[in-house]
Amino acid sequence: MNLEEFIKKSPKAELHLHIEGTLEPELMFSLAKRNNVEISFKNIEDVKKAYNFSNLESFLKIYYEGAKVLIEEQDFFDLTWAYALKCKEENIVHTEIFFDPQTHTDRGISFDIVINGIYKALQKAQKEFNLSSKIIMCFLRHLDEDSGFKVLEQALVHKDKIFGVGLDSSEKGNPPNKFKRLFKKALENNFVTVAHAGEEGPPKYMWEALNLLKVKRIDHGVQCLKDAKLVEELSKNQIPLTVCPLSNIKLRVFNKLKDHNLKTMLDKKLMVMINSDDPAYFGGYLNKNFIEIQAALNLSKEDIKTLLVNSFKSSFLNEKKKIEWISKFN
Ligand code: ADE
Ligand code: ZN
């Protein structure tokens, strides 16, 4: 079996996936029509042309524009169901997905509509093809902490459906420190915490995520190599870093895949794995991320196995389930 086949056939866990980032242009247009929502793109070609980003900020502008077509519970269900079918196609057997409630509640969509649509689709996927999943609610870091407290209040009503909380959106200028009281309250309410840090922002933000937000994982974290002490800390405690190769190229964190630091991170024994982030916007789902980064960095089969095993080790599955999946690679 060649490496590409090995990647496609292996069971995988995805740990960094924004459900709003799986909105394909075709679904965007059909939902715009169904809901009578005006969007600033003429056609699908026009949308694809706009997906030429210069950094995180330029992407987020278009990403929030696209999300405006999501109005009814059925829309959130359809969006999530389409991603669940991708999981089936790609042999993703476990997924931990982010959603951004403030993107929707600030447009007058109720929190219940959003969470119920996502949750029902994931339940159907569990029943029909045994896809396991967790839902992580992200706070938008460009907004203030008070707005975060309001959505946390609403999340408490759905504690049975929401496993953890995270932090996303514009990183630079919005350090984890800004949300330390909010994350303290989330922890008091038994939510697991994660945060985007070190995507574009400095190692300092990764330290803050660890020390102030008490995160179990850091999303992206590719800037860590600038700080040897941080690398030592991450390696010693095997803190997972949810790396997203195609995203990093699309948002110009690295110029080309060949310049990506994933192989260096693997060699430093950091707990890294591969994810797709916002696949509809960044040109590929999980398998494409694996296949392209393998080719660019000439990763060995052992490297690929490590990345696959790390995806399960770093997940929030229980120990028994983790062992079951990991044993398939021995
Ligand atoms: N929201 C969706 N994708 C994101 C990313 N890569 N970084 C920060 N916020 C995001
Ligand atoms: Zn992300």
Report on this structure.
This protein is α/β, with parallel strands linked by helices. Helices cover 51% and strands 14% of the residues. The protein contains 17 helices and 8 strands. Helix 11 links the parallel strand 6 and strand 7. It is globular, with a radius of gyration of 19 Å. The two termini are 16 Å apart. The mean pLDDT is 97. Bound molecules: adenine (ADE) and zinc ion (ZN).
Write the layout of secondary structure elements.
Layout: H1 3-9, E1 12-18, H2 25-35, H3 44-50, H4 56-66, H5 73-90, E2 92-99, H6 101-105, H7 111-129, E3 132-140, H8 145-157, E4 164-168, H9 180-188, E5 192-197, H10 203-211, E6 217-220, H11 228-236, E7 241-243, H12 245-250, H13 262-267, E8 272-274, H14 279-282, H15 286-297, H16 301-313, H17 319-326
Parallel strand pairs: 1-2, 2-3, 3-4, 4-5, 5-6, 6-7, 7-8
Residues 18, 21, 56, 168-169, 196, 199, 247, 277-278 line the site of adenine.
